């Protein structure tokens, strides 16, 4: 469902070094609009497809996955985040739209999405009614990382499940009635970590994909 307009090349890079320095251990597609500064004007350090391509509305306020193949961004003029305009971007082939969030540190946080190479994702789900869990050995090597789960139905649309839970060695995160959940985890000094993710599916709901992504970093909002 991506538009040719937005897609010139699907060159995939293994490690992208973002402005704030830490390597991101996911594969991020590059496109014609490969000028990542535009994308990072508002949410610092967010890599991936530039989502605000109207030069009058260059600042990414936030974005989310409309479906498995497209991002809807809310874009604003420089220094005027309240005047927002929607901008939809298709994901390159062999990538999936995943939702993430920035750190909050007590204040507000922003949601953003990235089209991530399917090779970097783990899809562990398919099924109806009941609890589906899976454990993942994490690749997060910094103090903090971002873990996200997106749940899609067979038509590639987000589908709401009863709960999404993420368990680390010392933290439990749970969200009810959601189709996506993104958390910042503290890895601390742990070397090898396992992360368990569970979704609870209500009767009558059919889930085609439960997709797990992790980024070796926590993103912040620009001051
Ligand atoms: C990135 O975008 C900015 C703003 O449109 C532009 O001034 C700059 O030349 C671009 N940089 C590259 C490398 O394309
Ligand atoms: C989730 O949705 C169900 C059914 O609509 C509702 O009964 C329940 O209270 C909701 N739970 C939360 C925590 O919002």
From TrEMBL:
Residues 1-21 form the signal peptide. Keywords: Signal. This is Uncharacterized protein.
């Amino acid at each position: 469902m991506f538009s040719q307009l937005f897609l010139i090349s699907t060159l995939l890079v293994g490690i992208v070094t973002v402005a704030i320095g830490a390597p991101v251990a996911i594969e991020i597609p590059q496109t014609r609009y490969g000028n990542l500064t535009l994308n990072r004007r508002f949410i610092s350090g967010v890599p991936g497809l530039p989502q605000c391509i109207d030069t009058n509305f260059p600042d990414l306020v936030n974005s989310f996955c409309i479906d498995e193949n497209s991002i809807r961004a809310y874009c604003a003029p420089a220094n005027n985040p309240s005047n927002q305009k929607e901008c939809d971007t298709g994901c390159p082939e062999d990538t999936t739209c995943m939702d993430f969030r920035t750190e909050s540190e007590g204040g507000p946080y922003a949601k953003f999405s990235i089209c991530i190479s399917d090779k970097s994702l783990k899809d562990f789900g398919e099924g109806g009614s009941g609890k589906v869990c899976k454990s993942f050995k994490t690749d997060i090597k910094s103090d903090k990382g971002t873990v996200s789960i997106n749940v899609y139905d067979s038509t590639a649309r987000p589908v709401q499940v009863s709960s999404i839970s993420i368990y680390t060695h010392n933290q439990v995160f749970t969200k009810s009635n959601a189709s996506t959940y993104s958390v910042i985890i503290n890895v601390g000094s742990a070397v090898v970590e396992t992360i368990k993710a569970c979704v609870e599916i209500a009767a009558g709901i059919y889930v085609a994909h439960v997709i797990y992504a992790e980024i070796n970093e926590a993103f912040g909002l620009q001051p």
